[in-house]
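Posted in: Structural Biology > Protein-Ligand Complexes

Title: Requesting predicted complex, BIS(adenosine)-5'-pentaphosphate in pocket

I'd be grateful if someone could produce the 3D structure tokens for the following input. Sequence and ligand are given below.
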Amino acid sequence: MKHLVFIGPPGAGKGTQANFLINEFKYNHVSTGDLLRKEIMSKSDIGLKVEGIMASGELVSDDLIIKIIKNNLNFKVDKYIFDGFPRNLKQASFFHEYLMSEFDYVAVHFKVDLSVLYKRLINRRVSADGKHIYNLLTSPPKMPGICDYTGLPIVQRDDDMPEVVSNRLKIYDELTKPMIEYFAKLDKLAVVNAEQEIERVKNELVKVIS
Ligand code: AP5
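-- Reply #1 --
Done. Output follows.
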């Protein structure tokens, strides 16, 4: 199996689908967003540095992201889903030229119209440990306010507040979207229609990885 890179706007369903693939296909999941949120929860130096940046929807510095990525990978034993990294052209060239110089990968574009994302994001809730993803409208927990798997409360991410969501979508358009052409030119791009219901997106992804 090749490594996978998930590219898509906030709310496209990257985390939802990664959770499925790690369970079914034993991928390892590297989400730079999750790693940063862990730093914030533990109130580390990195966490204190990035908390305000993430809450405003801006991107964290490339140097910090590259350091975090290098510290969290072990290519001798693992196949990865990269979720949220790379995030701009500079990170994409680091990824392709340096990290993947000896490995093969597919960059999967989660294609979805930006107009549906706002509603998905303001209704997203996650378990307090950040591992399980819900949606108040389309996939609520069985007991209101409680994670089905952990029994922890479900919470709203700071960057899912309506005023921040618009900024994140704008940043995606300006900085992340150009990577789609970058990976297409390298002949590494696959596209899934992420506007479909979750099960159908899963089925398309399974075709991509097989
Ligand atoms: P990050 O955590 O990476 O967030 P993101 O890319 O904005 O993506 P999301 O987690 O918001 O969305 P998702 O696509 O995973 O959607 P989900 O599956 O949850 O980044 C957060 C911040 O960290 C950044 O803003 C930045 O500050 C920083 N950062 C991270 N990486 C960085 C990097 N490399 N460089 C610099 N800064 C970085 O689904 C969303 C909702 O929709 C859920 O409620 C779900 O239930 C629902 N849903 C999912 N699929 C469907 C479907 N098919 N139909 C209907 N509803 C669906």
